[in-house]
Amino acid sequence: MQITVVIPTYNRAEVLRKTLHAYSQQTGDHRILEILVVDDGSKDHTQTVAAECAELDRRVRYLKQSNRGLAAARNHAIRKAEGELILFGDDDIIPTPNMTAEHIAWHDINPEDNCGVLGYVPWLSELRPTPFMKWSALYGPQFNFGYFVPGKELGFQFGYFCNTSVHASFLREHGTFNEAFKTYGYEDIELSYRLAKKGYKLRYNPDACGYHNKYETLNDAIERVEKLYRSWPEFAQTEAGYQFLEMWRGGKQRPANSVNQVARKMLAPLKSLAIPMLRPLLDTHVPLPAWVYSQVFYHYVTSFATVVQNTEKLVPTV
Description:
The chain is built from 14 helices and 9 strands.
């Protein structure tokens, strides 16, 4: 099996350059047939960067489209891909030298076309990520890698498509991304749900590691989640959105955190004073207990319950 790497991008030319350079340095049995850069209507020098990288690595192919969003960009690549496998990356996910080879190795062991592989996405160490950032990637609100067991099949709600490999034939037969999602968020979970109904099995391989080349402050994290919530009205109208909501209501999305529940009770009488005092510490390298990150972050971000309430009429009843 050969693999097509798909990298959608928008106005991040120099970030893209670093990522493409890392793909050109892959080692082991990576079997990269092509690297498709899908430019979603960038206004910077993305095309120039792609052309320069293609001079150094002939596997780089540049695809251009009008600004139609991430879902449309990925679908564009699916239509053009020539590899039997498609590895979905992002322009700011820098692969470790063996990342692609690790994806290939797991597909060699599990060659069925309904098998997918999710790799690990920690922060790029040279950015000096804060303890808050590390917590966010392991236990939310960025990712939930801290809960995953290598080789374990994952639920559709963890179908991140930033470092995931899937059989191209399975996608083309059973579903691609819903292009009604024009902005960031939920388009990958929605597709994962539809694929799962057709037998899709996503497993976690932490050795297929790609570093997230992005620094995120507390304010950045809050803004990202608020942006995600703006896609909830579209997601709420899908069957996947209904099932996601039912899981949330049942408290099944992540293990219950008794420590966090105790902390919530402890902080309640002092919350108005304690939370503002703790907030600046989240952007420092001072390590704090996980419950502090949770309490401070979810104090400032709009609650998911409020988001759901505001769109309740959109959620299907069956």
